[in-house]
Amino acid sequence: MNSMTTKRKAISKKLRFDVFKRDAFTCQYCGAHPPAVVLEPDHINPVANGGGNEMDNLVTACFDCNRGKSATLLSSVPQSLADKAADIAERELQIIGYQKVMNSRQMRIEGEVTEVCAVYESFTPGFTLTAAALASVRRFIEGLGVHAVLGAMEEAHTRRTVQPGNEFKYFCGICWNLVRSQSNGPRA
What we know:
By secondary structure, the protein is mostly helical. It is 56% helix and 5% strand. It has a two-stranded antiparallel sheet.
């Protein structure tokens, strides 16, 4: 044997298991895990470069990643599973927070739609808004705010020039005019 060649020492079964256990039986390069792949301990500092079988020099790799890496020296150890888990936990907390905000917003808007419907029904007893009309009310509330929409509903029902039965159409006209005036901004 040439003196330049580093002799590879076998890695004990216990050390293999300890490395796999530390890395949660997951390839630290691609994230694969059994039974989809066969795992191997990989030398961070390759044996060919003088790396040994110390726990700190070993990382869990799947067969394909280990063979693809070969004797290439890694400049840094891949992100640890603990770091990955912390990232995932942070993302989950953000998603949960976002969902709470969106659910709260939805509940507020639905309450405001109910409020606008109550005004409509107080002026037109026995009539309720259709699903399409409710969707319009919801969009107007989201764009204009509930107070503007309530004001438009009241105006549509108290304006003497509105023919009976056309109140909702008139209400929509008021709201669309408000939307247009908001999108055009104040005129000088």
